[in-house]
Amino acid sequence: MSLMTSAVRKPLIAGNWKMHLGLAQSVDLAKAVRDGTTGSPAEVAVCVPFTALSVVAEVLKGSHVRLGGQDLYWEAQGAFTGEVSAGQLCDAGATHVIIGHSERRRLFGDTDEAANKKLKAALAAKLIPIVCVGETLDERQSNQTFRVLETQLAGALKGFAPADLPPVVVAYEPVWAIGTGVTATPAQAQEAHLFLRKQAAKLYGEGFAAGLRILYGGSVTAENVDNLMAQPDLDGALVGGASLKAPSFSRIANFQVTAKA
Description:
Helix content is 40%, strand content 14%. The chain is built from eleven helices and eight strands.
């Protein structure tokens, strides 16, 4: 049973293109996503490589599809070679940004403290942050899933006032399911999402938790999205591989749920 009603939470389906596609391919995919998701019951976004932000922004201008970056740095400007600021993302047309993705944590050393700093920068720039949390296979097998989720969520949200946080989106991404073809069962996903919502209520009250959108990210496909989205505490998806093909991503964005479980 869900902790709260989902009536106040509009679903979000966000594609994470990761390090794929050149400019021409990005334009073509953005056009196809724009045209293929016009009837979606969800808010739709694509998070594209930094190099493609401006050209994709032109394609999506005036449409229902939002544009996101895949990361940001917390300083506004300076001698930070290779980094991109919140202001630069906004200038390129972005409205959303992914923070603390498991690949950033695992491959590039992003910590909970870094996620917290990036979240502050994103909110100050009025970007909608998608804050990622999730456990590894080893952590799940050793029954540490809830401890990891509690630590990562508290670390990312540390030091904020409740009034700062309504724009925040959380994405639960079981690391063992990302790009592996293995998906958490709907029941496993619901269990983690409900835990995160209860933690959000402990941190900032039930009002915040009731409005907090929690996405699922972990090998979401056109075939499994309907069953996942039927869960009461799943408010959308952060889609990796399937977002690189317009037909599959459009089907995910046009998920069909008769009623929440």
